[in-house]
């Protein structure tokens, strides 16, 4: 019985690649040092899979930055601004495309489907001269072979590559990217023939765009592409791998009829409907790679249930044609549970990270072949049972969300009541929440965590920091203040650590982009709030000033989308539980005299399902969750939310439906796109603060520049609803950048107030 892994995390069990990359970028180590760390990671991964008994082991799923960028390098599709002169692409050009350099900006980065991973978007057009410029796929195949491991080289399929690209600057927005197919296939053929010559017997093309809503023209392109590749692929077993959702029935027909293809991979965790299509008909003599082990979560597989699914599939495709696989690459899960020495033992028994998932895949394959490891299966069954019955998972006291929750009055009535109470000028100024986290501040938090300083010393240090931040904002004459969040490590972890139903790992890192990793909390049980979380700090800060002080909370949808979520109940139920916990906090802040409360929903759009047909339902429960948090406050309490911009023109109606009093938006990199929504006549009556400067850059914008941006906004938005603020929190910036930038921001707002008053 054969087994297969779609792909594997690259960072290493202790983020070895991250540290090697950053050291190389900082000029502290050589290219050779970086290559050695990478080679050691690759060989240990291949060896680990071979030792576990995996038959189809992937190669070329390792990357120094991103797999789509690797494909761009393979095709020589380097944008002209990087002055590449041909030849094999090295680190200099590769990392310039990924990160920019002193003279030119990086290529755009965007989310990989609906995961929290980001890829580098290819910039294509009619003039791109494609050439075979990176031999990485072949080199890595040979490298594994020299170690005695025969791998399956993995390439991003040609059609998905084009569908994930964008027209380069200066190319018509309507340029048909798929028209470039004929130009890139010759390079794919070269790669394939080199892989054949090197001894490869299998090749995997990842074509995940097949799970999207594709029209017949796009589906036809798949047919054309593989028909064109057919003769080059002869003599190889070709696997087309899909993941992240069901394959729609039209796409299934196209896929299973592709020329020269011998195997199809499906995500049977997020794509359970695909099972019905397979049962309705699977091409004779072809292989089915059944993705039954979840590559996107950290829960141990229910082996008995997976075995049942595989058993039924075996009846359809035949014993020798069924291969046990992961639902997608294991890139989206943590690396190895072995490194979690602090996790509670019971919770640990419910989990499986990438290394454990490899073992699960092999155990299922062996069981199907009649060599079931009874001990492994029975300990798995025991863990599944303990998770179902554990009182830690089910908390009877947790409330269930009832019918829809809304504030009693409409937004314009509330804004009037709030204005009487807050008495703000027009174009009020505020910031998004965090202030710079200095080395000193991080040290205080670290020492407190390690019990090197007492709680009293810690509280004193944090209070001192808050009073500095409050004084700075008063000196700058900002209207609505924040406490600066000096006590917080992360906008999700900080709350998760104070809610029940959450667990935290030490090394559960997952790659977000490049060398940046995130460590998502694990939501394993019913969520509730045992006691107030932020009230002490917010009321302490409010007592230091007569100006309004914003309470600062992370919203339920963002907490959900940035965590590993329990898979034993629908996601919306977990989201409603988090919302009810945040609602308790909002009401306690209000009781403590906090009149402005911000509830961030940075990741609302990140949870949007891939398929149009499922989007409305997600948006409905996500918006409902947000409204639950603040449906119980008085009209005079002003509710803010903050969102990071990501093409939300398409969800603007849901954003309006959130019914916040004020929304601040990260938009400075895409001003025009955002403002065009309002130009096109979307009626928006609540307060709105599109970011007036980009905090992701160390640049300090001038007063004139900021005033100019505010004027552009005033052209499409009413004077009485516009707020003036940076586009995101200031945590990552230095005070030497923050002070002058905020000073210019306040000056710009005052300048325009004067102009507007005299115009009246």
TrEMBL record:
Q: What class of enzyme is it?
A: transferase
Query: What are the binding positions for L-methionine in this chain?
Result: 432-434, 485, 600
Residues annotated for Zn(2+) binding in this entry:
642, 644, 653, 657, 666, 728
- The name on file for this protein is 5-methyltetrahydropteroyltriglutamate--homocysteine S-methyltransferase
- Stated role: Catalyzes the transfer of a methyl group from 5-methyltetrahydrofolate to homocysteine resulting in methionine formation.
UniProt source species: Carya illinoinensis (Pecan)
Q: Which Pfam families match?
A: Meth_synt_1, Meth_synt_2
Give the matching InterPro entries: Cbl-indep_Met_Synth_N, Cobalamin-indep_Met_synthase, Met_Synth_C/arc, UROD/MetE-like_sf
Pathway-wise, it operates in:
Amino-acid biosynthesis; L-methionine biosynthesis via de novo pathway; L-methionine from L-homocysteine (MetE route): step 1/1
**CDD domains attached here?**
CIMS_C_terminal_like (cd03311), CIMS_N_terminal_like (cd03312)
Reactions catalysed according to its record? 5-methyltetrahydropteroyltri-L-glutamate + L-homocysteine = tetrahydropteroyltri-L-glutamate + L-methionine
**Cofactor(s), by name:** Zn(2+)
Keyword Metal-binding listed? The answer is: yes
Keywords tagged on the record: Amino-acid biosynthesis, Metal-binding, Methionine biosynthesis, Methyltransferase, Transferase, Zinc
